[in-house]
Amino acid sequence: MSKTVLVTGGAGYVGSHCCKAFSEAGWRVVVFDNFSRGWRDFVQFGEVVEGDLLSPEDLDAAFETYKPDAVAHFAAFAYVGESVEQPGLYYENNVMGTVRLLDAMAKAGTKQIIFSSTCATYGVPEKMPMTEDLPQRPINPYGMSKLFVEKVLDDYEVAHGIRSVKLRYFNAAGASPDGEIGERHEPETHLIPLCIEGVLNDTFKLTIFGDDFDTRDGTCIRDYIHVMDLADAHLKALDYLEAGGASDAFNLGTGTGTSVMEIVEAVERVTGKPVPRSVGPRRPGDPPALVASAEKAAQVLGWTPVQSGVDRVIETAYGWHLKEIERKTAR
Ligand code: UFG
Questions:
Q1: What separation in Å is there between the alpha carbon of 229 and the centre of ligand 1?
Q2: How far apart are CA 121 and CA 123, in angstroms?
Q3: What is the residue extent of each domain of the chain?
Q4: Do the beta carbons of residue 83 and residue 141 sit within 8 Å?
Q5: Rounded CA gap, 95 and 193, in Å?
Q6: Residues annotated catalytic, as ranges
Q7: Quick one: which of 172, 167, 51 has its CA closest to 114?
Q8: What's the CA gap between 88 and 74, in Å, rounded?
Q9: Which regions in the chain score pLDDT beneath 50?
Q10: C-alpha span between 170 and 48 (Å, rounded)
Q11: How many other CB atoms sit within 10 Å of the CB of residue 1?
């Protein structure tokens, strides 16, 4: 009989792509989402419970009904700027929501969890590429909320024997190659979808946030990781916990950095269309460069990104945007 994974935030961007991968690998998938920021049309790969992480009743009912073998925890707010303006929202939803989730797990006897963490827990890194043992010194409440959860997870292991894998994502990007699900945020703040907006919408112009960083072309460098590669890492992490693996943390990136300007050029190359843009001031809190060392995930989880070339990322992202337009026109 197949095992069951409860996926909090399974209606969101990374969560929905992971549901697809889990379901294709034979897991029974149960999405737990309050749809405050998730999308109903992204729930395509399993059952769904509409519930809130801050409600012990909703959680207990879901654990009672589905008796999950493991939890994959994506539900969180993830806007750096918003977290600076409204830190309480982030500590309540991201940290307290996880505490409630872990309490429900402890009560139900579910002992395995995969957690969506972030490179933002490192703050401004001391060295590149970034290994997991670098000091974690977040520079905004979003990163801090994720770091708190990493610590809370360790405490729940001591108290309740819940083993965890913390996956620290670099820049999730791209879409499911079949165009069914993709990157949709409201509002959209991420670079690649905004470049595509520039290609598709005559009235939109991208602002490049600073070209005076100490990098090869003056724009920020990030490590863009294809969302389907991320999904594969989650699947491998589930297998790892199922096999009795010890709690651990892994960076999920490619090891290759790409500058903002290089992304803009790649979007123009892949789509064959110009990305209208201008250079504006730096965005507060943007580190000049964030590039992962992906060695630990390769060694321990046997994970290597295979879809993460920048052109492939953009090709799938663009493909999804075109299909979205088709779907909207057909409605
Ligand atoms: N950028 C622009 N113009 C835009 C949007 C982004 O120049 O309109 C630049 C940013 O300054 C940055 C790069 O493009 O240098 C990537 O920006 P994104 O907003 O796409 O992604 P971030 O690197 O800011 O954010 C990602 C995750 C966050 C996480 C953060 C950690 O989306 O959840 O990495 O640094 F917190």
A1: 19
A2: 6
A3: 4-173+225-252, 191-222+255-330
A4: yes
A5: 28
A6: 142
A7: 167
A8: 19
A9: none
A10: 28
A11: 4
Q: What is the DSSP string of 9-50?
A: TTTSHHHHHHHHHHHHTT-EEEEEE--SS--GGG--SSEEEE
For atom 34 of ligand 1, the residue with the nearest CA is 171
Note the CATH architecture for domain 191-222+255-330.
Alpha-Beta Complex (3.90)
Task: Give start and end residues of each alpha helix (H) in the chain.
Answer: 13-24, 56-66, 80-85, 87-90, 97-108, 141-160, 191-200, 227-242, 260-271, 295-296, 310-330
pLDDT digits (tens, 9 = 90+) for 65-75: 999 999 999 99
* Residue labelled with tokens 């026109």: 329
Token reading at 323: 């299909």
pLDDT in tens, 96-137: 999 999 999 999 999 999 999 999 999 999 999 999 999 999
Architecture of the domain defined by 4-173+225-252: 3-Layer(aba) Sandwich (3.40)
313 CB near ligand 1 (under 6 Å): no
The whole-angstrom separation of Cα 293 and Cα 132 is: 8
For residue 80, which atom of ligand 1 is closest to its CA?
A: 36
Residues 6+ positions from 63 with CB-CB distance below 8 Å: 6, 104, 105, 107, 108, 110
